[in-house]
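Objective 1b: paired records.
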Amino acid sequence: MKTKYTMFRRDNGVFYAQNTSTGKQNSLHTKDETEAKSLLEARNAAQRQPVLNLHLARAYLTASDPAFVERTWQVVMEQLQSRGKRQLRLETPPPKPTAVPPNATPLKNTAASNLSVDERLQKLAELFGKNLITLDEYDARRRKILDEI
């Protein structure tokens, strides 16, 4: 599989990552080659395993804030509004309600994925094959994906 990012060093000694498809270059903010290689590998791994990254992020968030699991977008919006700097926005009329209010969606269920059911099942099988999830977790998530059909 072709890597999405390559690494190079500029004259000032700072390492950069270059996107092989767009050519865009971003600084890795380090002059240490070992650290730069580690950062580059993390970027490439993020492209290869987006589902795994989502699960890792949820695990870190849950560990740092156990209430994250139950928190909804409504709670987030209420916290933002309670800070007092939103008076002008609060004076404008609210938008017309949608059929399913997005505020009722739990944060942990928010997905930016456009994967098909087949792709999601394949990713789930990969996680199980790599022993990243248990058989019980695999079965539960598989049922949940199939229930969405």
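Objective 1b, second protein:
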Amino acid sequence: MVVLPSALRFLQQRLPSAEIELREMDPSHQIDALQAGQLDLGFTISEVLDDEFSVRRVSREPLIAALPELPRFAGLEKADLRELAPEITILPNRHARRGYYETVTAAYRDAGVKPAQIQCVRMIQTGLVLVGAGMGVALVPACFTHIRMDG
């Protein structure tokens, strides 16, 4: 959320005559499009293991818990994944390449637990809508604190 606006401003300032076309793509399709020469630049939270790419980390953010406004979460200052594991965990679909799905499931694994049930969505933002509806919990990048959902 913070990286893309800054990157776009940087590109517009440094390359004012460049044509910028934004495409929202899952990690696998983005890597494939870069390999095919259909994209010149891509941003992903996925690990890029292909040697043919020059990769630069532009941001690193901790995951935070997005919790519905339900009595059992009221007043909770810090979420323990062991306490969240029984809840439905909402996260974006798994893709052919390592990415956000694996990052979230690894966080649960590192806590010694496994989510009881996983509900996959196409986009993290859709997951936040479901959290707001009380349909589960989600782990999201910290920059998502700027997004507010009812519920």
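The first strand starts at residue 63 and ends at 66. The chain has a mean pLDDT of 87.
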